[in-house]
Amino acid sequence: MPGPALLAAKAAMLLSDEQTRKRIGYAVAAVFVPLVLVVAFLLSLLSGTTQHNNAVVDLVFNGGPVPTTMSAEYTAQVYAMQDCLEVLDNAVAEVNSQMESGTLDGAMVKATFFSLCFGGENPHLSGSEACAFADCFVRYETRTCTVENGTDPDTGETVYTEEIYTVAIALDLGTAHENLAAAGYSVTEDLEANARAVYDRIAYGADGDYTGEIEYGGARMTELDVSQFTDPNTKNAKDLVAYVTHAWESGWGYVWGTFGQTLTKSLFESKLRQYPEGVGNYADFIRSNWLGGRTADCVGLIKGYGWLDVDTLTIRYGTNGMPDIGADAMYRNAKVKGSIDTIPEVPGLAVWHSGHIGVYIGNGQVIEAMGTKYGVVKTQLSQRSWTAWLEIPYVSYD
Q1: Cα–Cα distance between 157 and 317 in angstroms, integer?
Q2: Distances from the Cα of 312 to the Cαs of 105, 189, 201, 228, in angstroms?
Q3: pLDDT digit string (tens) for the chain, length 398 residues
Q4: What are the residues facing 139 on neighbouring strands?
Q5: How far apart are CA 169 and CA 186, in angstroms?
Q6: Distance between CA atoms of 59 and 61, rounded to whole angstroms?
Q7: How far, CA to CA in Å, does 13 sit from each of 9, 151, 181, 194, 274?
Q8: Distance CA 63, CA 262 (A)
Q9: What are phi and psi of 321, to 5 degrees?
Q10: How many alpha carbons fall within 13 Å on the CB side of residue 292?
Q11: Cα separations in angstroms, 163 against 139, 153, 212, 384
Q12: Measured between alpha carbons, how far is 386 from 351 in angstroms, rounded to an integer?
C-alpha cells in the first residue's frame, strides 16, 4: 500500500492534472476529473501505515460500520468509492454476459480503479463511464453462428441462417494498462504494485498471506466420490457440503479459471494463455504443487458441483442449469442472502465478500478455494473477512 510520499505525489498530480478521460465508442465520454484536494488533508487522513490503509481497503470493499473517529470528508470519500465499485460490478457483469468462456476478473478491475482514483474528493462513476473502464480489460470479437430459423413451407426442410454476435475476451494486465493509459489514466509501476496489493487483500483476505487458522486436506487424489451424497439426482445444499469436503480431503489445488478438472499440462498451458497474470505470475508454484491434481478457483469449486454428472463422474462445463458466472455475480443473483452477522446455521450456504466466495459447512467452518498458494482449505468463519451469506442460485435448500 502507498506511503505518505506516494500519496502526496498522487495528490499533487491530481491537483495539477485535470484530464478528460475518453473511450472511443461511447456516446458519453468517460470523464473523471478529481476535485481540488489538499495534500496536507490527505496526509492527515491517510497515515501511510499498512494497518491503516488495509483498514480502508476492507471498509471500501467489504463494508461495515464506519469508525466514529473518521472525519465527515473522509467518510464521504469511502461511501463515494463504494458507490463507484457497485457501478463497476454491473459493468463487469455486462462484459461477462458477452464472454463464451471464463470470466473477467472483477476484483482486479475494481482494485485497479480504487488504486487509480481513491484520494479524489467524492469520486463519481456513471454507468457509461464504468463500461468504458471495464472495456479496457477486454477486447471484442465478432463471430457468426448457424441457427435454425423455422421450416421452409414448400419443402418442409429446416431453414438455417447465419447470425452475427459479439464476444468479449479478457486481456492480460499489461494490455489492459495500455488501454487505461490511452483512455487518460496515469498507470505507473507504483500504481500497478498498489493495485496488486489491494487485489491480494480483497481476494484472499490478508495481503495474500493469511495467518489465521487453516486446515489442509489429505494427500492429493483425483478420483471423484459421490458416495456421501444424499440425493444425487438433485443439486442440493447437503450434497454441496459433501462435494467440497471431498475436494478438501483430496487436497485440491487452486488455479484461476478451473472448476475441478485434473490439471493436465495442456489445461495448464491453456490457462496460462487465458490468464497470463492470474496464472502466469504463479506458474512455477503451480507446476511444483498443483500439476496433475484437481484444481478449482473459488467460484469454480461451487460451479464444479453444479456441473457434476454423477452418472459418469465427470464435470461438464455449463451443464445442469448453472451458468458460468463469477463470485460477485453469484451473490447478486441470489434471492436469499444477508449480512454475515445474520448467517443461519445452514450447511451449504455460501459466504462472500467482494471478489471471493466459499461454502459454509457448519459449526463455524468454511471450505474455500482460498488462493494459488493455499488450494482448497478449511478456515474459521470468524477469522475471515466475509461480509454476506447467500443461498446459491441453482442449489436447493429445502
Answers
A1: 32
A2: 31, 49, 38, 16
A3: 444 334 334 433 433 343 333 333 333 333 333 322 323 333 333 333 344 467 788 788 877 777 888 888 888 888 899 999 989 988 998 998 898 877 788 888 999 999 998 876 667 889 999 999 999 999 999 999 888 888 888 888 888 888 898 999 989 889 999 999 999 998 898 888 889 888 877 766 544 556 678 999 988 899 999 999 999 999 999 999 999 999 999 999 999 899 999 999 999 999 988 887 778 888 999 999 999 999 999 999 999 999 999 999 999 999 999 988 888 889 988 999 999 999 999 999 999 988 899 999 999 999 999 989 899 999 999 988 898 999 999 999 98
A4: 169
A5: 24
A6: 6
A7: 6, 64, 15, 17, 35
A8: 36
A9: 80, 0
A10: 6
A11: 20, 21, 52, 47
A12: 6
Residue type, 214: I
Q: How far apart are CA 180 and CA 40, in angstroms?
A: 28
3-state secondary structure 342-385: HCCCCCCCEEEECCEEEEEEECCEEEEEEECCCEEEEEEHHHCC
DSSP, collapsed to helix, strand or coil, labels residue 199 as helix
Distance CA 384, CA 382 (A): 6
Nearest residue to 375 via CA among 290, 280, 273, 258: 290
Phi-psi label, residue 321: left if phi above 0, alpha if psi -120 to 50, beta otherwise: left
What's the pTM value of the predicted model, to 2 decimals? 0.68
Q: Are 298 and 358 in contact (CB under 8 A)?
A: yes
| Spatial contact of 355 and 202, defined as CB atoms under 8 Å apart | yes
Hey, what amino acid is at 194?
N
